[in-house]
Amino acid sequence: MLGSTLKRVLVVLGCWAVGLSITPSSIAAPGELDSSFGQIGEFALQTDPACGGGCPEFFGSEARALALQPDGKLLIGGQSPDRFRNTGEAHGTILRVDDDGALDDTFGSGGLAPAPFEVQSLSAEADGGLVSVGVSSNDAAPNGEVGIERYTASGTPTTPVQWSVMPREQGSSILAFDSMIDGTGRLLVFGSHVVPLVPDGDEPKLVRFLRTGALDTSFGSGGIASVQTLSKAETSASWPGAFAMRKDGSLLVAATTYKTNHNGEEIKAHTVIYLLSPDGKLDPHFGRGGMVALPNSSGYESLALADTPDGGFVLAAGEARSGSSIENRLLIVRYTKTGQPDGSFGHKGVATRTWRETEAAFRRIEAKPLGVTPRAITFDPRGRIVVAGSRKIDTSAAGSVENWFLARLTHSGFDCSFGSGGIVFGGIVFGGANTSADTVAVQAHGHIVIAGKRNHEIVAALYKGGGAPSTCPEEHMGQERKIQEPKHKHRRKRR
Q1: What is the pTM assigned to this prediction?
Q2: What is the number of domains present in the chain?
Q3: Does residue 263 carry a pLDDT above 60?
Q4: Where in the sequence is the domain holding 372, given as residue range(s)?
Q5: Which of 212, 306, 423, 433 would you call most buried, defined as having the most Cβ atoms within 10 angstroms of its Cβ?
């Protein structure tokens, strides 16, 4: 009974997911899967055929990092528990995929290279090498230590892994979220220092390394810049959201700060974007004293950040709100280089998409929205914004169901030439009730690659890009587009 109900849920959601009709690659429209890649537009790290129904060592596999090589090959990093060591512990993996969606067996061993940590980010070096940053969750180092490992272009480690990337206090832990290599070859690592005795908060940090692997002491304080120190709020803790590097070497950092009272109770939360100069100091000419606050909200679920080709920046946020109905919004905010909302974009600098519990599609499967989580932002060759992430709903029959989304926006708002209203959903009609996109990249000709997970597999998908941009009409009228707008009122379900 439950199996048939789940099948009905997936069929309804598959019909609701837009832009997924399978057509030949030569005539596929923007936002449709490119069937020349992998299996109907998707690549998945499958189990060994000898395992029959599945291998337990692949449970928990997930892609978290993606890099494009000039020759069109994809580098994907993440975790693949016990793939190489048979210890029952989580380890990392890096794989390279040809432009047709097949593993490149000239990389590592059969297309895969093991990593001593769960890979969080990948950066390509000018000489063709690769830098991987991740967090230990096994016996290679104390749990939670951040590590750096460098590889040749063929996937061979060149130096021993460098641990203790972020110094920490006794009893605290470290997380790495992202990394990037600047124009001079220096490596920047963005992470958090979980401060002991501070409830529900981390201390976002940026650490910069020279090409030799040594800390760059000209950056911040001894090579480390702390957003918590910048906020100067002794009773607050900041949760790191995202960071981006500008062409001039300055750094954008987005973080949510939680102000607490003396009892450790949260009394206020707000999200702020900071601008640091190339030497890791707060830039007082940006916004107000180096900081820009996001619009007031009851809470942002996730943040993604990127600098724009014209010197500004774009932030994507997932927002959950309650009122006459439970709803989730995807917010895209575009700013000028000085931190002011870009009035030429969306409505006063903001473009949104909303999913509500009252929608007919939710009522048919007795579901309510749980959250929308943007994970990554990039730009296509024409300067259009590309956002990837996941959307989750709760169904009464099958529990929570998650699938990835991909959105494209013009210089003015959501791009109606892409998918339906500028957005497509994917993954769920290809056999997965739990899919997510954690990273995104755009190829030179405009096709879009996302990578993440499908159930317990590492997965990547290639979507058609290109096409003439067409801003959705409601953007010009300052209206908020509702996905599947309800035709009549519906009583709100209890959480």
Answers
A1: 0.82
A2: 1
A3: yes
A4: 1-53+294-495
A5: 423
